[in-house]
# Entry
Amino acid sequence: MFKLKENKVFKNSLLISSGLLLGRGVGYIRELIIAHKYGADSFSDNLILSLTLPELMSNVLATGLAVKIIVPRLQGIDENGTSDFLNASWRKILNLSVLGFLIFNVFSYFYFSWPIFLIFALSSISIFPNTMSATTGAYLSFKERFLSQSTSNIVFNLVATSSIFFFHSLPLITVGFVIAALIRFWWVWCEASDYSVSLSIFKFWGKNEGEHQLESRAILYSLFGGSIILINPIINRLAATNLNAGTVSLLSYSEKLYLLPLTILITPYVMASFPSLSKIIGSEKKILGFTWKRIYPTIVVSSLVAICCFFLSGLIVKYSYGFTNLSLDSLSLIQRTFVAYLPSFIFSSCSLILTNILFAAKEEKWVFISAMVSVSLNILGNGIVIYKNGSIVELAYVTSTVSFVVLCQQIFSLSQIERRG
# Structure
């Protein structure tokens, strides 16, 4: 009989929260350097877009795809079979990553100009070290070891920020992003090397043998489903490229403010509790009891934070970006966009908890459906904003609306699973 050890979860949450806070702090300094050096123009837009893919793939793989599907399936596998399972899992994840790499670059070739396409093609190389970091991080999560994972974004952002600070050429800065992804993998692997696994789990060829296998269908579901909250920001930024120059930058500055409390307060608990939650649900098949016990505090905390941010939005923007080279009009636009994102903070916080529970129950299909609803509605909403020649404030409202719809769909999914059980 498994019990969720709240004290251990709290300690792990605190560790993760501290690491993520410091990582976000360095990332915030990176945004300040961009805002101070380049303001909000086409160069800053391209710079932020070139950073978006490495960050997106890291978040999708590290917090979505790899952890959510590997950790529950490591239950019951002995140490002898762990390396084979991790290798087979990594190769399947790598195959999908290569497919994503090709699709992204084909899209970039037709969507952007030739120089920008080359920058994005170079930036997308970071996908491959990120697959290695994600697989390694999933194993560490199963072992409930979170030190290197919680600090890996600090390492990445330090290297990425240094490249932005010291270089003025976009290709050189982008090379710095790829190097940052490689160093992040090395950082995570240093902790994993203390266990029985070795670098042999990253071999490219091998037979998928053994009782425990990672289903290709589960990977496909998780690739999209594990990143509900993470896919839409890149869609928003791509949509913003159709608006005025500099809007991608202003949108990114606003996102950083609304994602900070989500990263500090909600994500650490979600990450720290997932291994224990997987064991409980995997052995006892309890779902709704855990759902309501955890979602009520999340609603209260996220609502209080959102209300405080609403009333203090002017001060938050002023003390965050007021001393940069951004104009008063730009600061006002950041504030209004930040406020428009606040409902999404509440809904996304609850959605992260529900996504955690669905993955622990190995119900990736429902998470996949949620992701498809989310992405489809977001693309539709962004298309309407572009057609009406709207602003990034309206893009943020679209995100908040979509977040609410996804939350409702997930609640419906849990009710269906409980009824079926």
Q: What stands out?
A: The chain has one domain: 6-197+215-420.
